[in-house]
Amino acid sequence: MFTGIIEDKGLIKKVKELENSTILSIDLKNFKDPSIGESISINGVCLTLNSYKNNIATFNLSKETVLKTAFSKNSEGEVVNWERALRMGDPMGGHIVLGHVDGVGRVRELNKIDSLSSLWRVEFPKKLDDFIKEKGSVSLSGVSLTIAKKENNLIEVYLIEETLKRTNIESTDIGSDINIEVDVISRYSLGKWK
């Protein structure tokens, strides 16, 4: 379980496709005391740390994970968000994020409002419509955000200076695919999940 409060950014150095899986090698700066087998959220996807050497962490993604997320063979060179799993006693910022991606969205607009904030407009898959509510929480590329506005299949979220500095949002381009996880409370309380 995660909170959507990103610890830092990493860089995908290599994507190696195998017959039934994909190996991601990611340079994780400021990553301390790795524990092989621990869960780490990479762009909102809960992955297991396979190895860690010289700041390079490797993760094995199943075919299903690649199909259901924004990761692809073209991910090499992308900046990613990372967060370690929540431990007992850690502060509960953000909201409950499982790292189980519900759909892939697309960035439609990224507008700088002033030197301290930006507005991100994201298109989401129609199947998520019932679970996305104004003023509700959503995880976009692993970042816990509040939905300011929902219109048709677009949401708007406002990003403050700290979020912009800590995450990969400023390196995200319009048209980029991003991982979306709806708020776990709305997912299960509505009883409509398919």
Can you give a write-up of this model?
The protein is mainly beta and 194 residues long. The protein has two domains: 8-84, Beta Barrel (Elongation Factor Tu (Ef-tu), domain 3); 103-189, Beta Barrel (Elongation Factor Tu (Ef-tu), domain 3). 9% of the residues lie in helices and 45% in strands. It contains three helices and 13 strands. A hairpin with a 3-residue loop joins strand 1 and strand 2. It is globular and about 45 Å long. It starts with 7 loop residues before the first strand and ends in a 5-residue tail after the last helix.
List keywords for this structure.
6-stranded antiparallel barrel, 7-stranded antiparallel sheet, single chain, globular, mainly beta, 194 residues, Elongation Factor Tu (Ef-tu), domain 3
In short:
With 194 residues, the protein is mainly beta. 9% of the residues lie in helices and 45% in strands.
Topology of helices and strands:
Blueprint: E1 8-17, E2 21-28, E3 39-42, E4 45-53, E5 56-62, H1 63-68, E6 79-84, E7 103-114, E8 117-123, E9 137-140, E10 143-146, E11 149-151, E12 154-160, H2 161-166, E13 177-182, H3 184-189
Antiparallel strand pairs: 1-2, 1-6, 2-5, 3-4, 3-6, 4-5, 7-8, 7-13, 8-12, 9-10, 9-13, 11-12
Helix content: under 10%
Q: How many whole angstroms does the radius of gyration measure?
A: 16 Å
Q: For the terminal residues, how far apart are their CA atoms?
A: 22 Å
Would you state the CATH class of the largest domain?
Mainly Beta
CATH topology of the largest domain: Elongation Factor Tu (Ef-tu), domain 3
Strand order of the largest sheet: 10-9-13-7-8-12-11
Q: Which structural category fits the helices and strands?
A: mainly beta
Following the backbone from N to C, one meets helices and strands in this order, namely EEEEEHEEEEEEEHEH
Strand content: 35-45%
